[in-house]
Design brief:
Length: 395
Amino acid sequence: MKLYLSSKRDASLLRRHPWIFSGAVNHLDGDPEAGETVEVHSSKAKWLARAAYSPESQIRARVWTFDPDEAVDEAFFARRLQAAREYRERLGVWSQDACRMVHGEADGLPALVVDRYGAYLSCQFLSAGTERWKKVIVNELSKIPGIKGIYERSDADARRREGLELSDGVLWGEEPPEDLVIHENGLAMRVNLPGGHKTGFYLDQRENRLAVDGVAAGAEVLDCCCYSGAFGLRAAKAGAKSVLFLDDAAGAIELARANAALNGLADDPRLEFQVGDMFTVLRKFRDARRSFDVIVLDPPKFAATHGQLLRAAKGYKDINLLACKLLRKNGTLLTFSCSAAMTPEFFRTIVAEALTDAGRTARVVRSFAQAPDHPQALNFPEGYYLTGLQLAISN
């Protein structure tokens, strides 16, 4: 099967960007099925890549390989998965309780996500190509020493854009226990593989959460969109005067409570848990003139696409403006965006405008990105999705 690009639409592939959009396709030679491998050619019939075809997606094909001598077969997936694991071993994270093993395009396996939580793997197959090769991938993953079970969490909207139904459940081995516990930098955390966010936990913030340790002692801390409570619990362990955990989901607050107990903080009078909409609660705090020394803003994705970016920018500005008004002099703001459409430069602009409108000034203590086991590929900027800032409020 062959896919031919329209004239002058091969520039991104020559830069080794792995996506081919529907508008770049001139015609097909054959009638490939969803997920089938196609040979990609330029308008002048020059071979460019081998890719997985997706007839219902705007991303019409995702490149498996740019090497004309590399076949896409079982051995291909064995090599790519082995290389992904060896990279994490070199980073030193594979020996930890939990890490990301496969991060899609950056690991040469587009639209595949694999996270390890102890003896269990949690996977997302988010394209027609990964769906077609799912059995092969699972078979290779089952060979990893020490793995007891493989669970699928292919419940993201990306599946629908590929014309695929949402899918979850055990793919191989044992079902993960409900009381699965991992350890991250000295904290014990419960992970809910079947029902938690993403694949069960936000592993991408592992290193960023350590920033709390240096600012929390004696501080009054607000952890917004706390989910499992990892930022706030670090603050409590670092000697915070008080920590308020805020989330709009009652289940998240219960998980944060459970994690507090797991870390010896059950019934700790310093901890307060509140279910509520972040925008509403922050405005109420502003009106009540409540203030904090440290605020963490780690909201869910506001913009899934570039088309949603301007509306998302308003949301990011609103919460950062409110946080800036709630922070005391010499306070600390840890603020994040997990939208790939949001560039670090644009995020800085939004936060700067929020500071100006709040009448505050600040220094940038550090910039944040996703953990290194969620690698960024220079040929795939879309994979750089987590950005953040630590700000020291000056006035």
